[in-house]
Write a structure and sequence with these properties.
The protein contains 15 helices and 9 strands. With 374 residues, the protein is α/β, with parallel strands linked by helices. Helix 6 links the parallel strand 5 and strand 6.
Length: 374
């Protein structure tokens, strides 16, 4: 991005700012672009806030719009097929732009079920396109969108973010329905991105599921510490600040290399402007953040049963727990009987309060974990 003011903070916690403010992911970027350009669909799996949305927008920004059309569709707040079609349709029509008379007639003739309506934005008077979708015609509308992309002169790349939510839609056999539409497309390729690893893995790696082995699997892990350190130091030096390696190591390990939490802390440290960022400054910054979140964290606790709260506190104090049912862990923290602990763990994982990976279990929200430890 260009035209930044001197007060611009390069450590974004909200939006993708451009390649200059995007740390690493060079290998993942290369693999995703190569897959799409060679006609392969990709399943991108990572915990929330690890940077998958930023990565998708990063690769779409690197693809020449003269070579392919790129569409990012966030499914996180959708609850049914009609919602998916609404979100998908808006993205596609927005990219088409404000049509001329001839193009508008073509859109009306093609998107019959979507029933696009050209109107004026109330506050500005600017033209806008809205959609009027009947739930009973949602599948037909979806077919129209895919048909429009299929006939495009350029290849089309579609990213469905938080794709696992379709398993909660009320419509029966949603996976089979989508797969039946997608498998016949030759001009459209997909990125299916999701944050719930166990659901995404089951969808794409279980033999009796419609999407079984239909994509290239790409898990997203932590950015290497030394790479992130170089990125952070470069931006702090531009602001005449010094971030020592030992301070960043403390930061990185405190939040287990989790991208968003690193960005959040770096954002504050950049804002505060201290010339030397030492461990004391880091600890004070983390305390400030936890203080801001404390009422939300107290609400989390009130929504848990005593057994669930005891277990998540025990996990927080350990940081990482390789085996929840081990005698050592149960005797040290006494979160309850083994059977009760197993039941509580399932609930905490389903609520996305506890994360499970190859190294064991940890509190999903890194700041919540730090607060519980205190």
């Amino acid at each position: 991005m260009s035209g930044k003011t001197k007060d611009f903070n390069p450590f974004s916690v909200l939006a993708y700012l451009g390649s200059d403010y995007f740390c690493d992911r060079e290998n993942e970027t290369k693999r995703l672009i190569e897959a799409l350009k060679n006609g392969r669909n990709v399943t991108l799996i990572s915990p929330r806030r690890m940077g998958k949305t930023g990565l998708i927008k990063h690769i779409f920004g690197k693809i020449d719009p003269k070579e392919a059309n790129c569409f990012y569709v966030d499914l996180d707040q959708t609850t049914c097929l009609a919602d998916l079609v609404q979100a998908f349709g808006k993205v596609v029509l927005k990219q088409i732009g404000m049509p001329s008379g001839r193009v508008w007639k073509e859109i009306l003739s093609w998107f019959k079920s979507l029933r696009p309506v050209l109107s004026a934005e109330p506050s500005t008077g600017a033209p806008q396109i809205s959609l009027d979708i009947k739930p009973t015609e949602a599948e037909a509308s979806l077919d129209e969108i895919f048909g429009w992309l299929e006939k495009s002169k350029l290849p089309c790349y579609v990213a469905f973010d938080e794709f696992q939510v379709i398993t909660d839609y009320p419509e029966p056999k949603m996976e089979a329905l989508l797969r039946s539409h997608i498998q016949h497309l030759t001009n459209v390729n997909f990125i299916f991105a999701g944050s719930q690893k166990h659901i995404m893995t089951e969808m794409f790696m279980t033999a009796n599921r419609p999407f079984f082995q239909s994509t290239q699997m790409l898990p997203l892990y932590e950015i290497p510490e030394d790479t992130y350190l170089e990125f952070a130091q470069r931006h702090f030096e531009c602001n005449k600040q010094m971030l020592p390696q030992e301070t960043f190591h403390e930061l990185y390990t405190t939040v287990y290399g989790h991208t968003w939490y690193i960005q959040c802390i770096l954002n504050r440290l950049y804002q505060y402007g201290m010339r030397l960022i030492d461990k004391q400054a880091l600890a004070s910054t983390v305390d400030d953040i936890l203080e801001e979140y404390k009422e939300s964290f107290r609400t989390y606790c009130k929504l848990l049963t005593s057994n669930q709260l005891a277990l998540i506190k025990a996990i927080a104090h350990e940081g990482k727990v390789r085996e929840i049912g081990s005698q050592e862990f149960l005797q040290k923290h006494q979160p309850g009987p083994a059977s009760t602990v197993r039941s509580a763990l399932r609930v905490l994982i389903d609520k996305e309060l506890v994360a499970e990976d190859e190294d064991g279990y940890s509190v999903y929200d890194r700041f919540f974990g730090l607060w519980l430890r205190k």
